[in-house]
Design brief:
Helix content of chain A: under 10%
Distance between the termini of chain A: 34 Å
Distance between the termini of chain B: 16 Å
Number of strands of chain A: 48
Number of helices of chain A: 2
Strand content of chain B: 35-45%
Structural class of chain A: mainly beta
Shape of chain B: globular
Strand content of chain A: 35-45%
Radius of gyration of chain A: 30 Å
Radius of gyration of chain B: 21 Å
Shape of chain A: elongated
Number of strands of chain B: 31
Number of helices of chain B: 2
Oligomer: heterodimer
Structural class of chain B: mainly beta
Helix content of chain B: under 10%
Strand order of the largest sheet of chain A: 9-8-7-6-10-11-12-13
Chain lengths: 646, 442
């Protein structure tokens, strides 16, 4: 069957529609789980309607590609519930001199996979081919895919399928979109199985600029065992990409230019670490880059292995890059500055972050540095209230210093005769006598001479710590041997239920961070230093400065148990982020989905799959926002220069 | 046509027109229980009579060994799937013993089995949102159903009401309008959620307050102390996890409800917010489940429609923590969620998506949705899982077409092989056919 008649009709309609500015009906998007740019269109999944929509980026003011009825936006029916898309990527489009320009571009196909589906839809991207050209039936549930385009218009689709507890990786060669469009029955080659992976599922794949190279990220039943590797699809040689943790999404970049250096396309592979791989700890959060040539972690502008770039507790939902020269608005100014390689990501609480993907650091929008101040905090129930009294001259933490790059935004308590974290409300019975069992890993926080407060009924029985017998923390092969705290006269405390250790003796202050946790103890007149760890490298990074340093002054004449000094430390660092203001219930921006940067518009497009037909008074559908980075206000909920597609 | 189609299936009792006795009618809560003497167990299904075409809702006890297709085929055993899903339209129910009337607008269904020596016996609890805001209590002995608090077959007579203070206009709290979800703790505490917050004074829309209502399974009486405040937002699902009752957040307004709250069963006045909102924002949450080790929680989010996976630390402690580690898109209008535990492996999670007429299976080892079961029926509402030796059978109540879908996972290590094997009950095309035709399929 030939489609020539339809081709001509559709092309003419599109051409007319783009130029006339005819009013367009809403697309009523529902389930925008992915966006992808290919050709002159940004394709949008409308998952709940089993279709793709296409935003035509060629007009000065982009609009949905028009249907044969020009007031209606074109819908491209595809497989059920499309949730992820891919396009055939090329980096070798000739520049003015006929050399490859190194810029990543989508090609002549868009691929869509559905929720737990064994199918893949293949859609054309030329204006006259915006239809499902073919639907592949695969050997299992498709979990990820990527595609490489070529100058002749053919493409290679790589995809992964689940097979029992393992996966298979496939290569499918495709003829041109035009050929498939012309002849829906055109035979295509059978897919070639590249790899079988045991006890692993493929969660992400990308194609690299070098021919035959793809990068594959897997997840294993033992979540920490997921791995990432660069695969040569021809030789099947593998190279480990050492992200230090499993990865759940991959990306790479176009050629980028800084003042004195050039970053070749695909030099780095970026990975969004898999939060599920290590119980959500910070070691599995954020974006990390590795060198594709070696697989080792990339160095940031300080020359050190980069630190993960993240958005805090929310999960990263999408990542993309803007080409060199993209303008980003300067903080607090109306001007903007061209970026060498502008990275961007969205988060599950509706934020959009920009970062320096060339220098591999966050962009810091806080002009100040780290700092600290101190105040008294009255004991609970005291007459001073929560503000506490004034600190006498020369008393308490003095000469405070918080290190740029290590300091945290938190309140740190320095508490006279304070309780030791990990050694509070521990169980004891009369049978323990003078020997109290304590967790081996924290017993060393106590010192001989500390107070041990044994709870007996409703009263406390206070004794002095006489000796500490260290224990052995548990290992994977042996259980813990608890430590023993030997207490003078402890046996006299009868009817006991629990005990708590309070610092005393030469170091009668416990230092406890609200975020950091236990930091140590200190005595009158002593210097205190807590090294901490480097969390970011701002412009004024101090590599050798500890997280917190201070000198304890003389003892307060009115020294009182539990009257804490509160040291407030702050990072003086704020990553470049923004949000979009909600507009009552018609524009709900509390969750941001995928982000894509469209170079020909100089703007980013962000999916917001947040509309609920049951709770929205007039349902207009999910929406895509078009945002101009040259005009955004950092750190704020933006309202200006934003276009809505819905 | 309508009268012809339904008339043969309906009965009257005095002036009361009972809801159909030979098929389910807008089924909601359901529960499969293994019962000695049966191979497939007994399926308890609540008919909600959602359009109130009849006077009452109903509860069925269906012996799954007795259901048959029009040509006499029984429910296949797990691992022996038919070539196409069987339509088991003949329920084989003795309406004198295995059918009781309930109030309309039923919600979930939960059971408490107090006597291990008599596993066929259980006490069933079914909340309903129509007049009275009742919590029905029914004793089940296999397929024999008996109303608790009533001598007859109308279990709404004598059922405890959550309209505790409805007649007190000024002091109209505590109260539980729209009872919906129900769960039972191992020791026999029954917890009931309600969807709509109670206002004070009555009808004012002010001073909104919601409750988790606790009653004793053995002595199901609602008193003032039964109402445990949980804040302004109602809840559409509840699950007992160790020390806590974990609650979803429900809203019908444009405001977002708290995603997960925890009511401390040791200190019932203490309600914690899991604070998942610091990681992800959704309009509201629906189904909830914990894995066997209670170290991982699964939550259905709405707008965006998502499966949210969180790691849980210290669920039995005074200060449990939950941290979101994964978010996956789901088909439209996800509703119920049920855990399918696997020995030595990560759990499977089944999610019913009412807007997509499908059930999807998430594999926590793969971190992916690994399969979906199309054709399970219209508007799947609730699910019940029957774990068998190496596999599992999922029963799915289809609110929109009146049937119960039966999905088999014959090998839990290969969940992508899950398939629909049967529908139990007759499809009521009048519920799904916009033409209004009410033929009952056979």
């Amino acid at each position: 069957m030939k489609r020539a008649l339809f081709v001509g009709f559709l092309a003419s309609v599109l051409a007319a529609g783009c130029g006339t500015g005819t009013q367009q009906s809403p697309a009523r998007l529902s389930g925008i789980y992915d966006l992808i740019q290919a050709g002159n269109f940004l394709f949008v999944t409308s998952s709940n309607r089993d279709e793709l929509r296409a935003i035509d980026l060629t007009p000065e003011r982009p609009l949905f590609a028009r249907a044969p009825n020009p007031v209606e936006p074109l819908a491209v029916p595809v497989l059920k519930q499309p949730v992820q898309t891919a396009t055939d990527i090329r980096f070798d489009t000739p520049d003015g001199d006929g050399n490859p320009d190194g810029q990543r571009r989508g090609g002549s196909f868009v691929f869509a996979r559905g929720v737990a589906s064994t199918e893949i839809s293949i859609v054309g991207t030329a204006p006259e081919q915006l239809v499902e050209l073919r639907r592949l039936l695969t050997a299992g549930t498709v979990t990820s895919f990527a595609s490489r385009g070529s100058a002749d218009g053919t493409a290679i689709l790589y995809y992964a399928t689940l097979v029992g507890t393992g996966s298979e990786l496939w290569e499918q060669r495709l003829p041109t979109a035009a050929a498939l469009f012309e002849d829906p029955n055109l035979p295509i080659e059978a897919p070639r199985r590249l790899l079988s992976l045991t006890d692993a599922s493929v969660v992400s794949m990308i194609v690299m600029p070098t021919a035959d190279e793809i990068v594959v990220a897997t997840r294993a039943p033992d979540a920490a065992a997921g791995r990432t590797f660069l695969l040569n699809a021809s030789t099947l040689a593998e190279r480990v990409m050492d992200f230090g943790a499993p990865v759940r999404e991959l990306a790479t970049h176009s050629r980028a230019f800084a003042v004195e250096s050039t970053l070749a396309e695909g030099t780095r592979v970026f990975g969004v670490l898999d939060e599920a791989a290590c119980e959500g700890l910070d070691t599995c959060r954020g974006i990390v880059a590795v060198e594709s040539a070696t697989g080792v972690r990339s160095l940031d502008r300080s020359g050190q292995p980069m630190l993960p770039i993240g958005g805090g507790e929310p999960l990263i939902r999408g990542i993309d890059f803007a080409p060199s020269g993209t303008q980003l608005r300067d903080v607090g100014l109306t001007t903007s500055t061209g970026q060498a390689l502008l990275g961007m990501f969205t988060t599950s609480n509706g934020s959009i972050f920009f970062f320096d993907a060339f220098g591999l650091t966050h962009l810091d929008i806080n002009p100040g540095g780290a700092g600290a101040n101190v105040r008294y905090d009255a004991p609970a129930g005291s007459a001073e209230g929560t503000q506490g009294r004034a600190i006498p001259e020369g008393v308490g933490p003095l000469d405070l210093a918080a290190g740029n790059g290590r300091a945290r935004d938190e309140n740190i308590r320095v508490t006279p005769e304070g309780t030791i974290p990990g050694l509070t409300s521990l169980a004891t019975t009369d049978a323990d006598g003078n020997r109290l069992s304590a967790p081996a890993d924290v017993a060393a926080r106590a010192a001989v001479g500390d107070f041990v407060v044994i709870r007996t009924g409703d009263v406390d029985c206070e004794r002095v710590l006489e000796a500490i017998e260290p224990g052995t923390p548990a290992t994977e092969t042996s259980p813990e041997t608890p430590a023993v705290l030997v207490v003078t006269g402890g046996a006299e405390c009868v009817g006991r239920s629990s005990y708590t250790v309070r610092v005393s003796g030469a170091q009668p202050y416990v230092v406890d961070g609200g975020v950091t946790g236990y930091m140590g103890r200190v005595g009158d007149g002593e210097a205190f230093e807590f090294a901490g760890t480097v969390r970011f490298r701002p412009d004024n990074f101090e590599p050798d400065a500890p997280q917190l340093r201070f000198r304890m002054g003389t003892r307060d004449p009115e020294f009182r148990r539990d009257e804490s000094f509160i040291i407030n430390t702050f990072t003086g660092f704020t990553p470049y982020y923004l949000s979009v203001a909600s507009n009552s219930n018609q524009l709900r921006t509390y969750y941001a989905g995928v982000v894509r940067f469209a170079p020909q518009t100089g703007r980013l497009f962000v999916a917001f799959p947040t509309q609920d037909p049951l709770t929205t008074s007039r349902y207009l559908g999910d929406f895509v926002l078009e945002i101009n980075p040259a005009s955004v206000l950092a750190g704020q909920a933006n309202t200006a220069d934003i276009a809505i597609y819905r | 046509m309508l009268a012809l189609a339904l008339g043969s299936a309906c009965a009257t009792e005095g002036d009361v027109e009972l809801s159909p006795q030979d098929r389910f009618y807008y089924p909601t809560g359901l529960l499969q229980r293994d019962v000695p003497g049966t191979t497939n167990g007994v399926l308890y299904v609540a008919s909600s009579n959602f359009d109130r075409r009849f006077d009452d809702g109903a509860l069925f006890a269906v012996n799954l060994d007795a259901v048959r297709s029009a040509d006499g085929q029984p429910l296949p055993t797990l691992g022996n799937p038919p070539s196409s899903p069987l339509q088991l339209t003949q329920l084989g129910v003795n309406v004198d013993t295995s059918y009781v009337s309930l109030q309309s607008f039923t919600g979930q269904l939960a059971a408490f089995a107090a006597d291990p020596a008599n596993p066929q016996r259980a006490r069933l609890f079914v909340p309903a949102r129509a007049e009275g805001n009742l919590l029905h209590v029914i004793d089940a002995d296999g397929t024999n159903l008996t109303c608790v608090g009533s001598d007859g077959r109308r279990c709404m007579d004598g059922a405890p009401t959550l309209d505790f203070t409805k007649d007190e206009k000024e002091e109209s709290q505590p109260r539980g309008p729209g009872p919906y979800a129900v769960t039972v703790a191992p020791e026999g505490s029954v917890y009931v959620t309600h969807l709509e917050p109670a206002d004070r004074p009555l009808g004012s829309g002010l001073n909104l307050q919601s409750y988790l209502v606790r009653v004793d399974a053995q002595n199901p009486v609602v008193v003032r102390e039964s109402f445990l405040p949980i804040g302004a937002w109602g809840s559409s699902d509840a699950i007992v996890a160790g020390r806590y009752v974990v609650l979803s957040g429900y809203t019908r307004s444009a405001d977002r409800a708290p995603m997960v709250r925890l009511l401390d069963r040791e200190q019932p006045g203490r309600v914690l917010n899991a604070n998942l909102e610091s990681a992800i924002q959704v309009q509201e949450s629906r189904g909830l489940a914990f894995d066997s080790a209670r170290s991982r929680m699964f939550v259905v989010g709405r707008a965006p429609d998502t499966l949210i996976v969180a790691d849980v630390i210290g669920i039995d402690s005074a200060s449990p923590t939950m941290r979101v580690v994964r978010v996956l898109p789901l088909p439209a209008e996800p509703q119920a969620l049920r855990l399918i535990p696997r020995e030595g492996r990560g759990s499977l999670v089944a999610v019913a998506a009412a807007g997509a007429d499908t059930v999807v299976i998430y594999d926590d080892d793969a971190g992916q949705l690994v399969t979906q079961i199309p054709g399970v029926g219209r508007q799947p509402f609730d699910m019940s899982v029957d774990l068998q030796e190496t596999g599992a059978r999922i029963f799915v109540s289809n609110f929109g077409d009146g049937r119960v879908g039966v999905v088999d996972i014959s090998d839990l290590s290969a969940p992508e092989g899950a398939r629909l094997v049967a529908h139990v009950g007759a499809a009521q095309t009048c519920l799904i056919d916009e033409s209004g035709s009410c033929e009952v399929s056979q």
